Amino acid sequence: MPDRLMSTYARQPLEIVRGLGSRVWDADGRSYLDFLGGIAVNGVGHCHPTVVEAIRAQAGELLHCSNLYHSSTGSRLAGELVARGVGERVFLCNSGAEANEGAFKLVRKHFHRLGQTRRVRLVAMQGSFHGRTLATLAATDRPDFRAGFGPMPEGFTFVPFDDVQALAEVLDETVAAVVIEPIQGEGGIRVPPPDFLSQVRRLCNGTGCLLVADEVQTGMGRTGSFLASHDADVVTLAKGLGGGLPIGALGARGPAAEALQPGDHGSTFGGNPLCCAAALATLKVLSEEGLLQNATDMGKLLMDELRRAIPSAQVRGRGLMVGIELPFEGGPVVTLARQSGLLLNVTARKVVRLLPPLNVSEEEVLTAARIVGEVVEAARAGAATPVASPSG
Ligand SMILES: Cc1ncc(COP(=O)(O)O)c(C=O)c1O
Predict the structure, then answer these.
(1) What is the average pLDDT across 317-325?
(2) Distance 370 CA to ligand 1 centre (A)
(3) Closest by CA position to 249, among listed 222, 201, 210, 213
(4) Ligand 1, closest atom to CA 39?
(5) Most C-beta atoms within 10 A of its C-beta, which of 21, 41, 144, 241?
(6) Which residue's CA lies nearest to atom 8 of ligand 1?
(7) Lowest-confidence range among 31-35, 262-266, 315-319, 380-384?
(8) Does the C-beta of 218 come closer than 6 Å to ligand 1?
(9) Per-residue pLDDT, 388
(10) Residue ending a domain, choose from 239, 260, 288
(11) Residues 133, 203 within the same domain
(12) Residue 27 CB burial class (10 angstroms; 0-12, 13-18, ≥19)
């Protein structure tokens, strides 16, 4: 039967039927080390027993009740996120794009309430990715993704990612917020200089606009700390938040936390009890199993091993958000790695991206680094022969 799904994705020839920890299995029973992790979603690994149990328990109690009523799972989750630095008030939704869309609405409404009605512009970074809805696409520096979808929402400006001077030049009394990924994910694991975010914060303070940190990919401990940003007025999360279930969040602090009032914004499924229960369990696993520390330690090991295995490539990242910039198109590396039992992907055409679970083991890291080293060499040589598959 022909596949009736819209062909929005160029899917790889692999059907995944089962997952556990850092591994997934295909329909023929072959196993793969999953170093893409559902694109940073499976932060606590596939089917973590604590998350699965929380989902089972919640599924037997209440699946959905609508935001017209109180739900203790949603309120508890908001409290846990605030305790981890995600603002003072939280809005729950279903995805990264929806969290960012809500953030953009929030910053505009904030200034509207203050009577500063000219402050509507959002300044985003070159190389950014914030989602596929119209407004998040307008903030995404990918003209190819926008082609054919115009007209785009107005009021979005781009500046070079790590150029403080260029940012200073566009910040005026019409700017509502600067929107930034602390490390650009889709843009090619681009890590700004260490003091960049502090400088952006100072510029925002100086001109009175807000700072929005899109932590959809960097958040939930991915870089070794719960958030990769500090001091943002608005923070967005999704991906790893639900341990595999779809949930997003936006947190705001200070007066901006009160910007959205009854009727201003909404989402039927936002804060759904099942997804919130999964997110609460995921946060518990992150804390109780010391996964932030493991992300730091395993990230260092992974980057050290990759640098040793591929001295000619630039390896960069933080924690378990790792990129390898190749001197050639990375497509063949993805294919060869898959044939060798390792899942990864390529962003920005030449950057191999590794986003393994935060509870990945030393042995798994060493295996993955060895395979990456071998397949990068094979791809460089133009050879299409798969290297030996890992056991397990
Ligand atoms: C930084 C960032 N923001 C937003 C998004 C969009 O998230 P979603 O696909 O859940 O809408 C992504 C997805 O890759 C992302 O990496």
Answers:
(1) 98
(2) 29
(3) 213
(4) 14
(5) 241
(6) 96
(7) 380-384
(8) no
(9) 53
(10) 288
(11) yes
(12) exposed
